[in-house]
Amino acid sequence: MDGSSHQSDPLRRARLRWRARRGLLENDLIFERFFSRYEHDLSDADVGVLTRLLELSDNDLMDLLLARKEPEGDLADPDVRRVLDMLRTA
Q1: How far is 27 from 22, CA to CA, in rounded Å?
Q2: What Pfam families does this protein map onto (predicted)?
């Protein structure tokens, strides 16, 4: 985790967890493992990155999660890469 502030709002985390429920089972499984491992340690920056990632289509998100593609454009920043690494290894 980086040094940014801890995301302590349980309602915000619950909403994020609900929003992470996807149409593709593979994505659901990856996010379920991720939240089981990291949910209580997420920072505000992490929540912001997850929100951005969840705006992607299921297939684009799966390509990133499975490392078939790397983040591009406005997603190509260190915070996104760090959270993706967490998702990929959860």
Answers
A1: 6
A2: Sdh5
